[in-house]
Amino acid sequence: MPLGRGIGSDSGVPVRIRSQAGILRPDVAMFFGFRNGFLAMDAQSQHLFSLPIPPSTLAALTKAGYETLDDLPQSDSANQLIDVLNIPFGASQTLYSSSQRPNGGGPGILPSTQTAASLIGSISKQKSRRFTTHCPPLDALLDGGLPEGGILELSGPPGSSKERILLNMVRSFVEAGRSILLVDCQNMCDPCILDELMTDNSSARRLVSYLKIGSLTELMMFVNNLSLCNDSFDLLAISCISYPFQNARLTKSARNYILEKIKQALTKVNISQNVTIVVTSQLVTKLVNIDGTTGNFDSVGAKGVMVPALGHVYLPSAKAFRVLVALNGPTLDTGSFRLLAPLKPGL
């Protein structure tokens, strides 16, 4: 069975698909266009603005990426909104009493009929599940691997192992029988490479969906529709998310707006569906003055340092590992990892 689940033959939409190694590669427009495919809007979902909640609460929820009741996290109920978004208790109770959703049925949802002991045990089990990167030094840095529902950013120069590690994470989820959405922004994770990596696993093509992004417009099209995903997945792997920005002529405000939209989309799928997220990014040179402020070529004593191209503003920072992959040895097989942002306690 080929990669690209959700591409139905009964959609009635003309299909233009390139095929390599038996793997279907839909373009973005088709990926989002199938009637019975990957994205299907729930017309019955109630918008948050229709609820009797304070404007400040609605603004905080909208900024975090929530638009309807179905977007709200189904575990931890009102307490999660209080702790993470500083939503007033009364408003949180209103939101969850309005949702009246059945308990259970989705990933990460704990039935309300559990005893306190079993509930604590289930939460502990969820938090303790970690997925190996198949790179022992990085696993050690991550305290045994990437936790389920966690976020990992790998930034490095060309030739570093960041893309290989991303594919290793895909492999770990396939081995666990989990579903994956792989988004390739630089053609660094070609389906042929993925097919070779998964030759010993017959279920790989059933579990992995592949999407090729060719421009910043296509990336934003993907981001804006991500929350409408009708086909659930456990891992969102994005290869070189910074590449579409490379030749885009953006003002600072436009760039910040796009990064904020990406953050909202990633936050929503991460919190509401407990999706694990792994992204890779390029590095850029930043001039820094002696006192740590941003410098320029005219600054006396300014030094150039390599930093992740998109910074940190596009990531849900409270749950993100940000790792710099450096090449500092005599060969391409030698390097080091530096943890830029550790996971905050309790997450």
Automatic annotation (TrEMBL):
Compartment(s): Nucleus
Main subcellular location of this protein, as a coarse class: nucleus
Keywords from the named record: ATP-binding, DNA damage, DNA repair, Nucleotide-binding, Nucleus
Organism: Lentinula aff. detonsa
GO terms assigned for molecular function: ATP binding; crossover junction DNA endonuclease activity; four-way junction DNA binding
InterPro entries: HR_Repair_Mediator, P-loop_NTPase
GO BP annotation list: meiotic DNA recombinase assembly; reciprocal meiotic recombination
Protein name: DNA recombination and repair protein Rad51-like C-terminal domain-containing protein
Source taxon at top rank: Eukaryota
CC annotations in GO: Rad51B-Rad51C-Rad51D-XRCC2 complex; Rad51C-XRCC3 complex; replication fork
PANTHER family: DNA REPAIR PROTEIN RAD51 HOMOLOG 3, DNA REPAIR PROTEIN RAD51 HOMOLOG 3 RAD51C
Taxon lineage: Eukaryota, Fungi, Dikarya, Basidiomycota, Agaricomycotina
